[in-house]
Amino acid sequence: MTVQQSSAVERDSAWTTIRRTLVQRPTYLIFAAVTAFFIIFAPNFATLSTAGAILRVTALVSIMAVGMTFVIICGEIDLSVGSASSWSGMVIALLLQANVPTAVAPLLVIAMGALIGLVNGLLVTKLRIPSFLVTLGMLSILSGLALTITNTEPVPIVDDAFSDLLWNASYIGLPAPIWWTIVIVLIGYYLLQMTVFGRRVYAVGGNLVAARFSGIKTDRIKITAFMFSGMTAALAGLLLAARSTAGNPSLGSGLELDVIAAVIIGGTSLFGGVGDIPGSVIGAIFIGILGFGLLVLGLSTSIQEVIKGGIIILAVALNRR
């Protein structure tokens, strides 16, 4: 085979891969179209500073989307991640006020996030309560506790080392939130694509009965997925607290909707068994670009929500097709 023939084969193979990806993930076309629109019509949108700002803003959703991907691939849902992030931010503020070492307090909060996920998973698998109801109840419990303990007031964080570590610092030219996102995405990708646990997650979501008869401990897989989701929500809560230098009991309210939308836009099926981490991250970035672009265009908040919701519905509908 000549060099020209080899190059032609490689080009055909690349084009075939692109076409297959676009057929399987039609939302990527919407992503590209929306991005192109903002580059053309939004002032100063196509700049490195804008890209960095979008990635920092979407770090929270991207991190929680990684954990949510595991849960949804298992055929479940976790509505408690937004309130869990608020609760985590409040708890870290209280721990730092109590002079718990900066190196220890975040680890305690991550462990607490795992515990929240464990409770969700046990209620879903052992009591057979639908995850929608369990996590909706957990959302209400955590929100109520956070508001009650703080008397609805933010808890200030005066530990500069904590804020620098998680939000303010930059490493090799990249802000800390982007590094945290990269670390969680790599961990999630490895667990889902390169381990036995990941293959069992797909099996449980694809056919629960078949997975159970093949010897997979399906309850354990689901519980672990919920725990991972709780841990990523707790980390997002730490980032929220570092960004605002306070533990706010309602700061993460509503984030669960953006997280679920990001995962579904990224190609994960609400019925389980299908999905991946890169798609979820792309979905989170898409939501960030959409929100940031509409803001730059100067549209009112109400109009932004209408347009954002319509595009998300269209993207999800295309994925269902």
TrEMBL record:
This is ABC transporter permease. The chain crosses the membrane at residues 28-47, 53-74, 81-98, 104-124, 131-149, 169-192, 223-242, 277-299. It is found in: Cell membrane. GO terms for molecular function: transmembrane transporter activity. It is a multi-pass membrane protein. Signal peptide: none annotated. InterPro entries: ABC_transp_permease.
